[in-house]
Amino acid sequence: MKLLHIDSSVLGLHSVSRQVSAAIADRLAKANPGLKTTYRDLTATPLAHLSGSHLAVAQGAAPDAALQPDLAAGSAVLEEFLAADIVVIGAPMYNFTIPSQLKAWIDRILVAGKTFKYGDKGAEGLAGSKRVIVAISRGGFYGADMPTAAGEHLETYLRWVFGFIGVTNLEFIAADGIMMGPELREKAVASALQAATDLHAA
């Protein structure tokens, strides 16, 4: 069994999403002897954002030599995702949505013919066999009953993205309100870490 662990926070050791994603990966590793883990830090080794040149190559154009290393990097992250049985993602909310470096990664794994395809009935996801667990951290509170709910484009976006490629075994562990004061931050982190510890391992 293979685990792909992705982090996207720019905060390093101060990151809540990194702390929680690490706890999730540790829980799964301890519960599944022999689990092979691949770790990718999207901040330490960022992917380039898609450009017109990338899309031209996708449509069959010959790649420019300068683009070759980036195309190889994109192929590598796609293969990592395809090979994984479980994907753990650390995803903080930045300005109401995902970090741009995580978006760059998503753009490399949402590939027609690989993770989804189009047919007579529209798009069909091809990655439905995977389990995806996302550790999210948010500075405030964005529940459905909150006046801020309309500004939540982190969890809602990721639910749509992974649903689009067929993932139905999708879980979120959230640390909310981490910028609302020390007490709320401590409580949110403790709750998220406990949820990671209690995570169903299989």
Question: What does this molecule look like?
Answer:
Homodimer. Belongs to the azoreductase type 1 family. Pfam families: Flavodoxin_2. It catalyses: 2 a quinone + NADH + H(+) = 2 a 1,4-benzosemiquinone + NAD(+); N,N-dimethyl-1,4-phenylenediamine + anthranilate + 2 NAD(+) = 2-(4-dimethylaminophenyl)diazenylbenzoate + 2 NADH + 2 H(+). This protein is α/β, with parallel strands linked by helices. Helices cover 37% and strands 21% of the residues. The strands form 2 sheets. Strands 2-1-3-6-7 form a 5-stranded parallel beta sheet, with helices on both faces. The chain has a two-stranded antiparallel sheet with strand order 4-5. Helix 1 runs parallel beside helix 6 (182-197). The protein starts with a strand and ends in a 5-residue tail after the last helix. The mean pLDDT is 95.
Q: How much helical structure, as a percent, in the residues?
A: 25-40%
Architecture (CATH level 2) name: 3-Layer(aba) Sandwich
Sequence of strands across the biggest β-sheet: 2-1-3-6-7
* Largest sheet composition: 5 strands, parallel
Low-pLDDT segments, ≥5 res: none
Features:
Rossmann fold; two-stranded antiparallel sheet; alpha/beta; single chain
